[in-house]
Write a structure and sequence with these properties.
Strand content: 15-25%
Number of helices: 13
Shape: globular
Radius of gyration: 20 Å
Helix content: 40-55%
Bound molecules: nicotinamide-adenine-dinucleotide, 2'deoxy-thymidine-5'-diphospho-alpha-D-glucose
Distance between the termini: 51 Å
Number of strands: 13
Largest sheet: 7 strands, parallel
Length: about 350
């Protein structure tokens, strides 16, 4: 069996669902259920004894020690994090606590557990750390995409906290011999993403005929990957990755934010037509402080060494995503609770808007 952290969040829940759809290996899911963790994401697994959701904090060493001793997992897949850049700007402390202290605590628990293993249990154990392309900082238009050897240059409290955790993971390999793997992935989109992030926020606002708040000129570039493809890459790295190595994961889909928003409006005009085109809702608002201009991922290493490449194109993935949100409006309404509304007020109230 494996231990997953943060498996009630967006990518973690997709990973858990995909894992159990393609394997009978059981999974323990340790999640603090912050605002971003949602047990409803896993409701289809009710009664399935291959999955156990444990309410807990990765910072709680005793709890993690106890889980490892009781369940004897062959691997830890570490998703748990505070993940939203704008929230990290408003309140960085939680990011340092979970992403840095939490990863440290988990590494220490994993180290003690690994040292107590023997034989093939010890050789085969893996600690897979899920990181982000944001640790590499920002690119100019002519720069080559981030490779595994691009130096770290994080620009937000979120990316700095993830970079710090990546350094700890690396050090636990070199110093203690913990068999770690790290992945750096680009922007994910797809089912179950909390509607504070660009794609689900734009879909939810467009359906409610609310403004679509594009930061600054909207020409910032991200590389977009369908979440199911990220999950298949993680499974591949876990199965075949070489301890101590890092792997970049991306979709070869560099798009300007404004073009992503237009794509979503086109899809909504087709799949949920209103009286007027959704494009009219696009509003340019005050930019994000320290906003990285461009991310791009060179994903040739994982393709060359592990034979992974994405199954979805940007067009097929976005269409599936819009269809999922249209079919799951109850899920969206449920997560748009009081706490969500307070966040929307906090983040968007002081941003001055102008129509496109
Ligand atoms: P998310 O915010 O949707 O989910 C995070 C999950 O972690 C939630 O279920 C939350 O309850 C849990 N969690 C938070 N603090 C915890 C703690 N102290 N102990 C236990 N559980 C805790 O995040 P996501 O978008 O699914 O991202 C998952 C991971 O992937 C993160 O490490 C993130 O840095 C990384 N990542 C995300 C993207 C993306 O586009 N979303 C891209 C690359 C990498
Ligand atoms: O690159 C990987 C990262 O992608 C992950 O590590 C993060 O966890 C994940 O949140 C994501 O970070 P971004 O900051 O790129 O994602 P977000 O969806 O918040 O924003 C995407 C782009 O859209 C970014 O350039 C900011 C812009 N944006 C975002 C929001 C929420 C807007 O223009 N308007 C908005 O309202």
């Amino acid at each position: 069996m494996i231990l997953v952290t943060g498996g009630a969040g967006f990518i973690g829940a997709n990973f858990v669902l995909d894992w159990l759809a393609s394997s009978d290996e059981a999974l323990i899911n340790l999640d603090k259920l912050t605002y971003a963790g949602n047990p409803d994401n896993l409701s289809s697994l009710e009664g399935d004894d291959r999955h156990q959701l444990i309410l807990g904090d990765i910072c709680d060493r005793e709890q993690v020690n106890e889980l490892l001793a009781r369940h004897q997992p062959r691997a830890i897949v570490h998703f748990a994090a505070e993940s939203h850049v704008d929230r990290s700007i408003h309140g960085p402390a939680d990011f340092i606590r979970t992403n840095v202290d939490g990863t440290f605590s988990l590494l220490e628990a994993a180290r003690a557990y690994h040292e107590g293993l023997s034989g093939t249990d010890k050789t085969n154990f893996r600690f897979l750390h899920i990181s982000t392309d944001e640790v590499f900082g920002t690119l100019s238009p002519a720069d080559p995409p981030f490779s595994e050897t691009t130096p770290f240059a994080p620009n937000s409290p979120y990316s700095a906290s993830k970079a710090a955790s990546d350094h700890l993971v690396r050090a636990w390999y070199h110093t203690y011999g913990l068999p770690v793997l790290t992945t750096h992935c680009s922007n994910n989109y797809g089912p179950l993403q909390f509607p504070e992030k660009l794609v689900p926020l734009m879909i939810a606002n467009a359906l409610a005929a609310k403004p679509l708040p594009v930061y600054g000129d909207g020409r910032q570039i991200r590389d977009w990957l369908y979440v199911g493809d990220h999950c298949s890459a993680i499974r591949r790295v876990l199965a075949e990755g070489k301890p101590g190595e890092t792997y970049n994961i991306g979709g070869w889909n560099e798009k300007a934010n404004i073009d992503v928003v237009h794509t979503l409006c086109d899809l909504l005009d087709e799949l949920a037509p209103g009286k007027q085109a959704h494009h009219r809702l696009i509003t340019h608002v005050t930019d994000r402080p320290g906003h990285d201009r461009r991310y791009a991922i060179d994903a040739r290493k994982i393709e060359r060494e592990l034979g992974w490449h994405p199954a979805e194109t940007f067009e097929t993935g976005m269409r599936k995503t819009v269809q999922w949100y249209l079919a799951n409006q109850t899920w969206v309404r449920k997560v748009q609770s009081g706490d969500y509304l307070q966040w929307i007020d906090k983040n968007y109230q002081q941003r001055h808007g102008s129509e496109a």
